[in-house]
Specification:
The chain is mainly alpha-helical and about 425 residues long. It contains 14 helices and nine strands. Helix 2 packs across helix 4.
């Protein structure tokens, strides 16, 4: 019931209906949300059309479509029209996502025993079925932008159901021109993000992971990733025309800006790349995808290979992780390359920023120019071992200092 404009609901009893779906289309909008009858949801379609016109990638359109599908299912569950939604609906969805587990299309099998636990080798947490804080924050941002579009054209509710926090001063009121602008304000119902440190694959474990790969294609792909620090989507988007064999460069399309950038790669990566292309046994067209499936499939027009997708690439790492008992991901390779470069005294911070494709140097510094946890633990262990060694030489006072005075001041030992 509503009290003072708010709504009180029993979040534990709410169940989202299996309503609608996201489909891929051949039109201007690459992904659409359809209702139970297979008809596109008009408010979402109009918003995504405007979203595409702003130059956003198909992957972003797909992500926004799935988030809005969940929002629509939530509104159906609480029986509120999309143009009648209030901040109470946003608040209760956040509480619901924090209480309920994600809906799975199939039950867990092998991963049931490890979900939510810490891997003893990588010291990384396995994913569970809970909604992560980043997922909830992304959901709030998408829904807010959806209503901003409709409020701007005058056909939506008067107030955005995803409000900004009432606390704090006006953002950028005293902006420092040397730092980037902050966002327009913190969303009221967004959870805080846990501080995450980049995870590097140590050299011995990288060698084990490389040896566990089955095919030259996978070795070439991972070698390129760990030497260029490119993102998975950027590496998967490579074509033969994006390779400069003489200078050992690869041209990637940056995820955020969409700009093209040449990145240097290791000689080893190009050796494996040459082996992979030779194993294909077929000429590659300049503008076709570089990475293709190992097995050829019949799609009605004969046997042919398919472009390697991100889901198939994840399966490659899954098989290797099962052999090694680890849970490394493709993004760990980017972290590994970035931390290796950050520790190189011959590379500047600007060099690392340029290779990583960060728009601001502060992003590179906050994430990668930090003290490595593993190295800190190694030095502390060495320190403790030296302190426990009875044969370690005691420090000798400098000339001019009295031994008795120093013993009183520091508690003995000199």
């Amino acid at each position: 019931m509503r009290l003072n404009g708010a709504v009180e609901r029993d979040i534990r009893e709410v169940r989202l209906p299996r309503w609608g779906s996201v489909i891929q289309t051949e039109g201007v909008v690459p992904f659409l949300v359809i209702d139970a009858g297979g008809v596109p949801v008009v408010p979402i379609r109009r918003f995504l059309t405007d979203f595409v016109a702003q130059g956003n990638s198909p992957r972003s359109v797909r992500s926004y479509a799935y988030t809005l599908l969940r929002w629509w299912r939530w509104l159906l569950a609480v029986e509120v029209g999309w143009d009648m939604a209030a901040p109470a609906e946003c608040r209760d969805l956040l509480l619901w996502m924090g209480f309920h587990a994600k809906t799975r299309t199939s039950p867990r099998t092998k991963s049931r025993s490890t979900m939510g636990t810490i891997n003893p080798i990588t010291r990384k947490r396995y994913l569970d079925d809970r909604y992560a804080a980043r997922t909830i924050r992304h959901s709030n941002a998408v829904v807010r932008s959806f209503y901003e579009f409709w409020i701007e054209i005058g056909e939506g509710p008067l107030l955005n159901p995803v409000p900004l926090s009432r606390r704090g001063a006006q953002p950028n009121a005293h902006h420092n021109p040397l730092v980037p602008f902050r966002a327009g304000g913190r969303l009221r119902y967004s959870p805080k993000l846990p501080k995450q440190r980049p995870r590097e694959i140590p050299d011995p474990q990288w060698q084990q992971l490389f040896a566990a790969l089955r095919h030259s294609r996978d070795r070439a792909l991972l070698s390129l990733t760990v030497s260029t620090a490119a993102r998975s989507a950027e590496i998967l988007g490579l074509r033969p025309v994006d390779l400069d064999w003489g200078e050992q460069l690869v041209r990637v399309t940056r995820k955020g800006s969409g700009a093209s950038q040449w990145l240097p790669a290791s000689a080893e990566a190009f050796v494996w790349l040459r082996i992979w292309i030779a194993e294909l046994g077929m000429p590659m067209q300049a503008n076709h995808p570089l990475w293709q499936t190992i097995r050829r499939r019949d799609h009605g027009d004969g046997l042919r290979r398919q472009p390697l997708t991100y889901e198939a690439l994840r399966k490659v790492l899954t098989r290797a992780n099962e052999v090694l008992g680890t849970n490394w991901s493709m993004h760990d390779l980017r972290h590994t390359a970035a931390l290796r470069m950050a520790r190189d005294e011959h590379l500047s911070e600007r060099d690392v920023q340029t290779i990583l494709g960060h728009a601001h140097l502060s992003t590179t510094a906050e994430i990668y120019l930090v003290q490595d946890e593993a190295e800190t633990i190694t030095r502390i262990r060495r320190h403790l071992a030296e302190r426990a060694d009875p044969a370690r030489p005691l420090p000798v006072p400098a000339p001019g200092y009295d031994d008795h005075d120093l013993s009183v001041l520091f508690g003995g030992g000199l």
